[in-house]
Write a structure and sequence with these properties.
Layout (H helix, E strand, L loop, with lengths): L3 H19 L4 H13 L5 E5 L7 H14 L5 E5 L3 H11 L6 H6 L11 H16 L6 H18 L3 H18 L5 H13 L1 H9 L1 H5 L14 H15 L5 H14 L4 H4 L9 H6 L11 H4 L9 H9 L4 H13 L8 H11 L9 H10 L1 H4 L14 H13 L5 H12 L4 H14 L7 H4 L7 H20 L9 H11 L2 H11 L3 H11 E2 L11 H4 L1 E2 L4 H4 L4 H12 L6 H16 L1
Parallel strand pairs: 1-2
Antiparallel strand pairs: 3-4
Helix pairs in contact: 1-3, 6-8, 7-9, 7-13, 8-9, 9-10, 18-19, 18-20, 19-22, 20-23, 24-26, 27-28, 29-32, 29-33, 32-33
């Protein structure tokens, strides 16, 4: 493809000779007239033709032919700029017997341009990067990391001023689209690979699974990779990411992947790295973070991450409990393509950026969060097994990161007591239970033994009393029977009160049709909170254990009678009938 400058020269000169041909005068006569006119000039004319090597072979040959034919005009000097090796290859295609001698007939004086000074190149790149992307991150670690990646990847791949220009053109287009949602050092590095080592870039993009599922372990937990396995992995990674590379390019490519994807140290390094700081990768939006990896290739943010703008807007309202509560409730309605809601993403992202919530804003933030915690505990964000990574768990994690290490126990106690005045029912049960367990840990609660309890023992008991007060109020106004996790709350109520109290309330409710239908639905579950069985809901729905504990809370015989009674009614809706029949069929299997 012709460049503008050289293409213009070819076109203009061709037009000139066409006019000569069409005129009455011969080319020789016109040449003589032009020579005489140029001889009389007091000035000399310098004609510069650049990028000849970037033309196609035919266009480049035409340039050389034209210069050869008119090159002896007086007071005219031609300065040609091109890559000699590339030009000689093109000429060899047309004139195999002549080779370099063809150029010697055209070029009277030739000299090689000096290689650009590496220092000047680096400064040129830095100036360009600063003008487009801004300065490196302010934190010391990220600042140091930027310079490490810049030296080992960007500066190593930039060899000519043209490379600087290519990189500038690329990031001027790609950077603005994701500037707030990727890591500056990682983005610059991966763009350099895309431009200068495209096969490596393509391999990274196509083999995400390899880069994210490397483990230093083999077999049982704690057993490191044996040499045979590691040698095999080295061969696989070399073939996948470094194929057809040699020498300096191979070294740069391997170093780049090691920097960008620290897990690969367990393949290419002699050191086995067991503890990866994945939270830091996520927080700093690095390419090694699985949720941020796609942004470096699509130049857009998907719905599996929280954008920097969304996080900034959320944090700006941290000191307003109503705005925080509304923001969390809104996040439940924002569905993700792969399942779940943005509520889970916000809770995880806030845990990583908890330091952005000022000490003064913490009380209001906790009040807002605690007030809608039950609303956030949606099934869509629960784990597939045991729900240990549901949103209640995420709230506990956020709360611990936000307050441990920042406040002492007395201050934490004050803040929790204040926030729990506004807490929703299930969350109040969860936090009171966790705080109480910290003061009486069993053998399985070893983590609780290794750190100071979150709040004081007296405060933990007061939270339990507050939960009992709230669940009794919910039972009295009947809001309890509408709660999503009513069945579980009944057992938690029993644990902190008298089982007879709970059974009396349930027996009274068994006379209400809607309660029987709801209880039938809740009785059958993915996850058994008593036995921790996780069956397949469609094929092996499991009835909660029929044991003395349950019978102490619920009159199962009467419950079954009420289910049969409702099933005999013709007026039951199809949906309600399905819930009752499912309970009936599952209970019969038990």
């Amino acid at each position: 493809m012709s460049t503008p400058a050289a293409g213009a020269v070819v076109g203009a000169t061709a037009n000139l000779f066409r006019k000569f041909k069409e005129a009455d005068k011969t080319v020789e006569q016109e040449h003589k007239l032009l020579s005489n006119a140029l001889t009389k000039q007091d000035k000399r004319f310098l004609i510069i033709i650049d990028d000849i090597d970037r033309l196609g072979t035919d266009d480049a040959l035409q340039i050389f032919r034209l210069i050869k034919s008119v090159g002896r005009l007086p007071n005219v000097i031609y300065l040609l700029a091109f890559d000699r090796i590339l030009a000689e290859k093109m000429l060899a295609e047309r004139f195999p017997s002549e080779g370099p001698s063809y150029l010697e007939k055209v070029i009277q004086g030739a000299f090689e341009l000096p290689l650009p000074d590496p220092f000047d190149l680096r400064n040129s790149v830095l100036h360009m990067v600063d003008s487009i992307m801004g300065p490196p991150e302010e934190t010391e670690h990220e600042h140091d990391r930027f310079w490490t990646l810049f030296h080992d990847i960007t500066a190593a791949l930039i060899k000519t001023p043209r490379d600087v220009h290519r990189l500038s053109n690329a990031i001027r287009v790609s950077w603005p689209a994701v500037c707030d949602d990727v890591n500056r050092a990682d983005f610059l590095s991966i763009e350099c690979l895309r431009l200068f080592l495209p096969t490596v870039h393509a391999a990274i993009r196509a083999n995400k699974k390899m880069l994210f599922e490397i483990s230093p372990y083999h077999g049982n937990e704690g057993e490191t990779l044996v040499e045979y396995d590691k040698a095999f992995l080295v061969d696989v990674f070399n073939e996948t990411f470094l194929k057809d590379l040699s020498g300096r390019d191979r070294t740069i490519a391997q170093q780049a992947i090691l920097h960008l994807f620290p897990r690969t140290q367990n393949v290419w390094s002699r050191v086995t790295v067991k503890d990866m700081n994945t939270d830091s990768w996520q927080k700093n939006r690095r390419i090694a973070s699985e949720s941020h990896f796609p942004h470096y290739f699509t130049f857009s943010v998907n719905d599996e991450t929280i954008s920097a703008k969304e996080l900034e807007e959320f944090l700006a309202n941290a000191g307003d409990p109503k705005k925080i509560a509304n923001a969390f409730k809104k996040s439940i309605t924002q569905k993700r393509r792969r399942g779940g809601t943005k509520a889970a993403l916000f809770l995880e992202e806030l845990a990583l950026h908890q330091e952005a919530i000022s000490d003064d804003a913490v009380p209001a933030f906790l009040c807002g969060l605690f007030s809608v915690a039950d609303d956030l505990n949606v099934e869509a964000d629960a784990g597939q097994v045991f729900q240990v990574d549901g949103n209640i768990f995420r709230i506990h994690r956020l709360m611990n990161r936000l307050m441990r290490g920042r406040f002492d126990q007395a201050k934490r106690t004050e803040l929790i007591e204040q926030a729990c005045e506004h807490a929703s029912l299930e969350w109040l049960e969860s936090i009171s239970n966790e705080c109480r367990k910290e003061h009486s840990p069993n053998e399985e609660d070893q983590d609780h033994r290794e750190q100071e309890p979150f709040i004081t023992k007296d405060a933990a008991q007061q939270l339990t009393d507050l939960f009992l007060q709230h669940i009794r109020a919910a039972a009295e106004d009947l809001s309890l029977k509408k709660h999503r996790n009513m069945f579980w709350l009944l057992f938690r109520w029993r644990d902190v009160a008298d089982a007879a109290e709970v059974k009396q309330w349930v027996d009274e409710r068994l006379g209400e049709d809607d309660f029987v239908i709801t209880l039938s639905e809740k009785f059958v579950s993915h996850i058994d909170p008593l036995t921790l069985i996780s069956p397949n809901l469609d094929d092996n729905a499991t009835i909660r254990d029929d044991n003395a504990t349950i019978r102490g809370t619920l009159d199962i015989d009467r419950f079954q009678e009420r289910v049969d009674e409702l099933l005999d009614r013709d007026s039951m809706s199809a949906d309600d009938r399905s819930k009752l029949k499912r309970f009936k069929g599952t209970f019969a299997k038990d």
